Amino acid sequence: MRKYTFGGGIHPLSDKHEGKAPTRMREITDFAPDQVTIPMDMHLGAPSVPIVAKGDYVKLGQVIATAAGPRGIPVHASVSGTVSDVGLRQLAGRVPSMTIVIDNDHKDDWVELTKVGGVEDAPKDQIIPAIQQAGICGLGGACFPTHAKMIIPEGKHVDTLIINGAECETFLTSDFRLMVEHPERIIQGTRLAMRAMDIDRAIIGIEDNKPEAIEAMSKAVHGHQGIEVAVLKTKYPQGGERYIISALLKREVPSGGLPLDVHVVVLNVGTVAAISDAVLEGSPLITRIVTVTGVVQNPSNLRVRVGTSIKDAVEFCGGYTEPPARIFYGGSMTGIAVPEDSFPITKANNGVVVLGEKQVTDYKESPCIRCGRCVRACPTRLNPFQIKDVLDNMDDLDGAEKLHITDCCVCGACSYVCPARRTLSASIKAGRDVILARRMAK
Amino acid sequence: MKLRVAAAPHLVTRESTRMLMLDVLIALLPTTAAGIYLFGLRAAWVLCASVVAAVVSEFLWQKLMKRPVRVGDLSAVVTGLILGLNLPSTVPLWIPVLGSAMAIILVKELFGGIGHNFMNPAMFARAFLLASFPARMIVFALPERLLGASQALSGVDAVASATPLVMQGNWSYMDLLLGNIPGTIGEVSKIAILIGFLYLLFVGTIRWEIPVLFAGSTALLSWIVGADPLAAVLSGGVLFGAVFMATDYATSPVYTAGKCIYAIGCGIMVVVIRQYGNYPEGVTFAILLMNCVTPLLDRFTVRRVYGTVKKHA
User: Fold this and answer.
1) Tens digits of per-residue pLDDT, A272-294?
2) What CATH number has the domain bearing residue B210?
3) How much is the pTM?
4) What is the ipTM of this complex?
5) Is A51 on the interface with B (CB under 8 A)?
6) Torsions phi, psi for B162 (to 5 deg)
7) Which of A73, A75, A395, B19 could staple A65 via S-S, CB 3.0–4.6 A?
8) A3-24+142-280: which CATH topology?
9) Which residue of A has its CA nearest to B256?
């Protein structure tokens, strides 16, 4: 079988099965906590606007915040019960987030749902609005509002829909479990997305370290014209939008451009499954599958209610096996570390990884020895050590810009391979953000 | 609960600077052992002197300059050992001591320490010693094993001799391969060097381009100018230089295209110096020269960034 791949990249934790072994055979289990904390800024873009107040009773799936503008998405109650707080909270974002806290009455008292239609008979022009109303954003981690991605601007032409099932990040098996357990929902969502955008061809890309998912998806696509499964070589960051496009189609998204510019839309497997639920059942995005692993008693794949705290999820998995030293959302390559475990799991979080004291090392940077490992690891073909040099020694933003710092996708591959433990990726991200802010100001 | 927050990635490779240097030392073991076996205890003393001098001068310099002491990264050990292996076993011990101190202080530390030197420290030191004390630097011992144990035991210094590059044709390929030839401590046993090369490739410390293209271009060019290509690679310091010195991270190009040009440049320079220069051997000068071209090569072989159209650097 032909296997697709891209240039550069690394094999993180390849001697430890990418950290996926403890959870890859764990079936998805439902979990609803006693209380959920739902931030209004889970998605990329303007935060949603709360329309409930403290003391209100909300039904499961009820809209509790409306979309801010046409590119925004609403937020729904992920449990039924009483709103116990609406207010600002400092979460993992840069500024405090508006959050709605709901106490769960465990009745799962659903709001009335209206379905749009079947896979082949749902009216085309109602699919994308339904996706927006369901509050769907990219579940691969970026959390860009999905409907906004699917509205093809005038003059643009899309010929291929890529369904991203690469799941190249370490530790995560949530997409894998979804593909193994619910391949039909992914196919239904894919068909709906293809119809909504008038695309004839869809490719589901899966890394070759997930043979069960490849098998399940291949079986499910059988008889579906225009949808195919493509096997990708296991390499990080294969699941990055730009790299899955160049691997499968040999097209490069232009610098500063979008996949649309090369006639492609990329959606995560979890996202298309949510599309299927939204259109076929009218059900909003109130749960997400999250891999909870690391130093926890029973590493698991949970379908949690949006807003479940890390603490509750870990306790449901049997608690910590040793005092946690670091907890992060997502995998170890790009995961965002949290200062406390009361933080909620949002639509964007595909994993919660807990590391013990032994696994967390505070590395000390030593001088670059020019070994070139970061250069070979960079999927964007940048020179990370040179960019960091320019930033560190000369504080030279213009110099860094000339070295294409803004093309960095912050995959972390350079930092991972650096034998001198240089914080390449973090420094480059910091410099990149300053430059992007400077451009915005101009 | 006390959680420590940090930027991703949260887990990184186990490979460290010290591990990479340790791998080079492991790869140098066969060469070192062969050198001591062939040239006797005298060779061991030379190697000891150069390693100790390299480490001590790095330590003292960093203390004196109030910089963080980094001898733990083992890079000074590598520099010292490589310099020692580049010397004949006959040199007085002050030669390796002087050479190592120069390599570490003048070439490495004064230019900013590890990773910042623009010339290979051991190579520069050897070139300096060669230019300053030619009489001591080109007197090569014949391997003791070649002369027989009796003479070695008698304590008489082995007969001074020129390297096979000067006296071509007197040695069989087997002698060249095993190291039964006069030469510096480390360069003679090609088998030992090749074992080290395979180890470095296997553990991923170096890549194949520089050693293979360096040796390959030397052979090809020697053949073109009418010399024996196999003897050209197996005699002198080509293999040792190609595997252990031209591959030095700090002084060789970063991009693959640059590495290839650099390696072929080394090969061309070696043959040019050997055939048309006054020195019988040109590996040291070839590598030093190409070291100086490295920044230029890094500039002109920049890769096209994903999603951009290639511009001129």
Assistant:
1) 999 999 999 999 999 999 999 99
2) 1.10.3430
3) 0.93
4) 0.92
5) no
6) -85, 160
7) A75
8) Rossmann fold (3.40.50)
9) A376
